[in-house]
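job 3f2a | input accepted
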Amino acid sequence: ALGFATRSRGYEYRGASDQPEFGEFYSDFRNFPLVTATGGRSWALGRAPPPPGFDNAYLTVGSAGFTGPDDAAVPVSGWVGGTPESPHRTFCATYRTSDGGLQWWYVLQPSVVCTQGVLPAFYMTASVGYAAPVDGARARLYRTRNGGRSWRPLGWLPWAPGEAFDEAQFVTLQDGFVLSGGDLYRSKDGGDSWQLVDARLSVAPSLH
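job 3f2a | predicted structure (208 res):
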């Protein structure tokens, strides 16, 4: 994962090489995060403390949100033991920084915004973010305005059993998109209602 707040300030998250069977998107706290203040010409390893008992956890990292060059929030999920499909223990957290990524702290997230130990969230800024966990046969949208310290439930997403729920993203507090089973939906009221934009997109693996 790669995120930039300005032309010079950004971070990178690299996958682990010692467990290739888990895929390139898994890493650990030895590799998270790398920080640059030179537009990628040089990098430094930031300090992100693991939650207790998760020193050797494998991580998945979501989309970061920035407020200025120094403040950022990024959703991070981790697991230890077992496999990605059947982990022994998991955690969901929002990691925050206020010094451009050199020092980080975390806010553990409630289970209501996590799906099987994964935080399916993205941040627009260091404070405002959205999560779209799957709750049984439905997916519900949640919003935080304080960097993950609390979440407010919004509307249910247009997702039906048997369909693949892929991703939800907002471009403003009111205007957002959901990709579900190849169908693209749009909301103009903060997620309270959704309209079908394009059915069965032929090439749409993710929203960016």
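job 3f2a | The CA atoms of residues 95 and 106 lie 4 Å apart.
job 3f2a | closed
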